[in-house]
Amino acid sequence: MHSVIISSxxxxxxxxxxxxxxxxxxxxxxxxxxxxxxxxxDYYGEKSPLSQVANISVPEARLIVIQPWDKGLIGEIEKAxxxxxxxxxxxxxxxxxxxxxPPLTEERxxxxxxIAKGQAEQSRVAVRNIRRDGNEELKKIQKNGDLxxxxxxxxxxxxxxxTDSYISKINQVLEEKEKEIMEV
Length: 184
Fold this sequence. Notes:
Blueprint: H1 3-24, E1 40-43, E2 46-49, E3 54-60, E4 63-68, H2 74-82, E5 91-92, E6 97-100, H3 106-143, H4 149-182
Antiparallel strand pairs: 1-2, 3-4, 4-6, 5-6
Helix pairs in contact: 1-3, 1-4, 3-4
């Protein structure tokens, strides 16, 4: 397999992985520790990921418990969660923070599905751009005489198969996320 194909596939894998990461922080009606992946807490003047200053657990389907390792951080953690785009209302007892995940309204679910579809479309465009870059690179190599026209055609075909495969993976990831969002 040509190095252009290998590097293109690597970039496509990263695109799908990035989409999955983006979906992890999209709130569904179910409690999940990954909701807090992007939340940073002011820890001695340093913005630290929440998971590095507290233990995040999900004891029930709609409950998240955050236990800071330093009790003095409770106020900072609550502030960070309240100011995030998650629209959650944390409460604490001085030792742990409890967050009840309210069920999503039908309207909010549809809004989240729309956001997910937009992210998936951006990923599909990224994969197609990777294919275009790969095709241009193959054309250059062929012009330099390092690749025959037949080899170039085979590689272009291989790149198209890869593109189709990754676009179908993106569609599958989107379908799973839609189901998760719409589930009551």
